[in-house]
Design a protein that fits this description.
9 helices; Rossmann fold; alpha/beta; two-stranded parallel ribbon; 221 residues; globular
Length: 221
């Protein structure tokens, strides 16, 4: 199983839940699988430094468990878009440290699940877009579609952008982020018909989701 990059149709669509579920699904195959959150904004400071909740969830779902600085090379305090958060922290997010951290993670495992930030077009810095990182790492992309009003438009635009940017769309995961969404099954059927990549899984809305239990809902290529 190749390493892969997880993006979303927007922020708040369940990328971390999908990424941790993918890690458990890969581990269930007997693979050593570790997560990576290259850039994370919105961190809390503790005895070991700045830590991000999503990155910690990836670390918890990984086996072997990587050191935090390798899993999350850029931990930015402010809960802002990365370009703004890095500016506030006086930090410049650059490609080289991300590639080096990925290489170290890859040496520890059979596969690395790299979780992006926000949606596909969210920039990492003034000079670095997520597509640049994905192309440099040569990773296929898994798109998380947040099932809510507007998801058809967001999913189709994101899928087209991934391909237009010269990246491979490996598949997509449906994430039920709105428990009251009308015509959810009908929207799923429309997405299945229009997205030119297979659906890899469906994550239902749960108050306290457990990625290890949801792993059986993922079909890996």
């Amino acid at each position: 199983m190749r390493s892969l990059f997880v993006t979303g149709t927007d922020t708040g669509v369940g990328k971390t839940l999908a990424s941790t579920t993918l890690l458990h699904a890969l581990r269930a195959r007997g693979l050593r699988a570790v997560g990576m959150k290259p850039v994370a904004s919105g961190c809390e400071h503790g005895s070991e430094g700045w830590r991000n909740a999503d990155a910690l969830a990836l670390q918890e779902a990984s086996d072997p468990r990587p050191a935090y600085p390798e899993l999350n090379p850029f931990a930015l305090p402010e809960p802002l878009a990365p370009e703004l958060a890095s500016r506030a922290a006086g930090v410049e997010v650059t490609l080289e440290p991300l590639l080096a951290a990925f290489s170290r993670l890859q040496a520890q495992a059979d596969t690395v699940v790299v979780e992006g930030v926000g949606g596909w077009a969210a920039p990492l810095s003034t000079t670095l877009d997520q597509r640049d990182l994905v192309r440099a790492l040569r990773l296929p992309v898994v798109m998380v579609v947040g099932l809510r009003l507007g998801c058809l438009n967001h999913a189709r635009l994101t899928a087209d952008a991934i391909v237009a940017d010269g990246c491979e769309l490996l598949g997509w995961i449906a994430s039920a982020v709105d428990p009251d969404m009308a015509c959810r099954e009908e929207n799923l059927a429309l997405l299945d018909a229009r997205l030119r990549a297979p659906r890899l899984g469906y994550l239902p809305y749960l108050e306290e989701p457990r990625p290890v239990d949801l792993a059986r809902r993922i079909t890996l290529p």
